[in-house]
Amino acid sequence: MLAVAFQTLRGRWVSFLGTVVALVLGVAQVAAMGLLLMTTLDLPDRPVERFANAPAVVMPSDPTWDPAHHDLGVRSLPQAKGVSQELLRKVSAVGGTVADRAFYAQLEGGPKDQVGHPWPVARFGRYTLQDGRVPASDMEIVVASGQARTGDKVTVLTAAGVGSYTVSGTVSPVDWEDAVFFTDAEAARLAPRIDALVALGAIGKVREAVGEEVEVLTGQDRHQADASEDRDREALDNTVTLVPVMASVAGTTAVFVVASTFAFAVIQRRREVALIRTVGATPRQVRRMIRNEALLVSGFASVVGTVLGLFGAQLLADMLIGMGVSPPWFRIEPSLHWTVLAPLAAAFLVGVLVALCGVTVAARRAGTIRPVEALREAAVDDSGMTPGRLLLGAIGLVCGAGLTAWIALGDPAMVLSPSAYALSLLVPVLAAAVLAPLAVGPFTRLLMWPLRRFSGPIAMLVRQSVLTSRRRTAATAAPILLTVGLTFSLLAATDALGAARENGLQNQVRSEYALAPDGTPGISPQVIEKVSRIDGVQVAAPILTTIYTHDEGRLEVNDGLVVDSAALKRMMDLKVVDGSLDALDDNSTVVADLWGMDVGSTLQVLMADGEEANLRIAATYHALRGEDVAYLPQRFAKTAVYARDGLARRAYISLVSGTDRAAATTAIRKAVAGNGARFVTRDQLVASDSAYARHLTEVRQRSITVIVVMFCFIAILNTLLMATADRRRDLAVLRMTGATPKQVMRFFIAESLLVAAIGVGLALIATALNLMGLWGALHQLFGTAPITVPYAVITGIAVMSTLLAVAGTVLPVSSALRAGAVQLVGTRE
């Protein structure tokens, strides 16, 4: 039967074109995403930057520390403490050393990621003095040319305050950092922590002197000391996190569309299969022929798809780079390496297996076709619901309803994880697609009911055509259902989650005003103190630090916020579960209820500067995962420059009763002008704080949406082209009964509009189920559940899907009319 299958393909290649297109695109999608994932396992070496001219770099390290498990900027305890004086003495004893300190130092109006260094370390980063001289006093600095000129007086923002310096010289700029260079003494005043040592002695003696307590980096390993190492790692972590979700959602959609397309292609050949049975083919031979056809088609299409995926993977990478997910240098190069060949081979096998699985059930049904069906004139199909499909749809419906209930009541925090939640949104949409043939009848009667009084035969013909071809209607409506359903669910969830976060933050903040960073990563404590000295102004400015706790032999890392206890109670409305904020003193802390600690118990902590403390739990408060921090007394403020950058991310401001509001706000604006902070209202602060979290969610879910929509748009056009191209006989019958070309065109357009409406209607039902779960989850998490819908985007996608459905109908009908397809049955225009 392989020869018969090959001859069938040669004779009916146009009929198989739609399945080839669907499979090529599906395999290309799987191959591209597989290449993205595998490329992250074999990345090219990044060039050494800050210490390119250093023979060796000594850095404190923790061999158990995995930066992939922590947010960007979080340091291990040895890194936070920095190079100790004892280590400095050991390295200096075997040769010269140069200490490097990296700290926040930003010229007024400069980029927010500017960094300060002591001048002696500049030469190891290949900086060369272009103009002027090296800094000779603590009030002189060197900057990159173009940022300022030699002799200029400039303002520099640091965690220690805002200072005025004279530019003594300029250096050639580099593309990997924007640096400001100070004298050794001034750098030590601004940043007490030593990040690393450049060891100028014999490397062997250096290793022998330091032992196992630190890392001695040479060669390519010196890149581990570069700041870009952490930035690149976070970007790649985002890629590794996002791509599997994209592959799961988009891949499932592709598999469903491809399998449906193959099954639909077999269904369209019912009459042809009956003729083959008439000439003596057994059911087993029919099944083998169809499987062989699928094997030949899938083999060819999978080869084309893998090639397309190989060269299209960089387009996908460029899209992620444009969204800020992947680093700008991320490249996918064609090669014979296993990281390239493995995903291509896997994509090829997936394409073949999906095609074979897609025709398995259809081939079994084709084997049951009786020869007498070749004599039928009517092409009325059944309901389209086989027992297996009905069972699968019922399971999907039950799972979708159960998952919705679980998200709403059992695990509402799932909506905060875009990766897991995006996959859960698939279940109701796919269940609706599987059960679509059952809904064709009711939806058709409902949608056609307003048109029952219309004169003319078109409405009646459209209604009956759809009702008597439920399988075909369901197959053509499925891509529209997937497009609108997944897009609606993902985008509505994104907007609703962002709105709920914003409302939750707004309810949490009591203060009327606030300070927010103005082009800077944070606000200097000196600026906050300056504002607090204004009459009638009360300020609370939590400063971010890190606490380290022992948990069953492991060192747990958590964020801490250093804040005055009275100000915390006055400015923030924490949901206290147990204890009281009034009990917070210099030897206690307030922690989230997620930590499972009781009020009155003791928390043993290590601070970033090496200090050990036993803190009593004064209170616990309710917090979401990712927002659970420990509130610490002011005495730990000095640890912030070791743990992070020593800056406050925001400051809450309230005015004492009776204070002249206009005078106070004017004084605040004057105090912060040019100091890296801006005076805002509470609503403006909340919008700013929620923007970053919303951005991360939007990037993940909208990138998934883009991939799904692109594939489904092509699937809509492809499926409608297949379905309509196979209906030349219907077109001829209409012409025989006296229908004009315009009437024929109107009939097919009206039918495609009805199919699109059925797909959109089913998508709305599936989305409603998803939004019910989302509403319940947000209500539990934030006490409010504003379901916001991006009507303009959803309407645009629905309209575009409908236009593609109409285009997929008009093109083959127009072609058939121009070719005089009616002559096939002996009629003339």
Automatic annotation (TrEMBL):
Organism: Streptomyces xiangluensis
Name the UniProt record assigns to this protein: FtsX-like permease family protein
Domain called ABC3 transporter permease C-terminal: residue spans: 246-369, 704-819
Homology family: Belongs to the ABC-4 integral membrane protein family.
Recorded superkingdom: Bacteria
Principal subcellular localization: membrane
Lineage: Bacteria, Bacillati, Actinomycetota, Actinomycetes, Kitasatosporales
Keyword Secreted applies: no
Annotated TM spans: 12-38, 242-267, 294-316, 336-363, 390-409, 421-443, 473-493, 704-723, 744-769, 789-811
Membrane topology: Multi-pass membrane protein
Keywords: Cell membrane, Membrane, Transmembrane, Transmembrane helix
Localisation per UniProt entry: Cell membrane
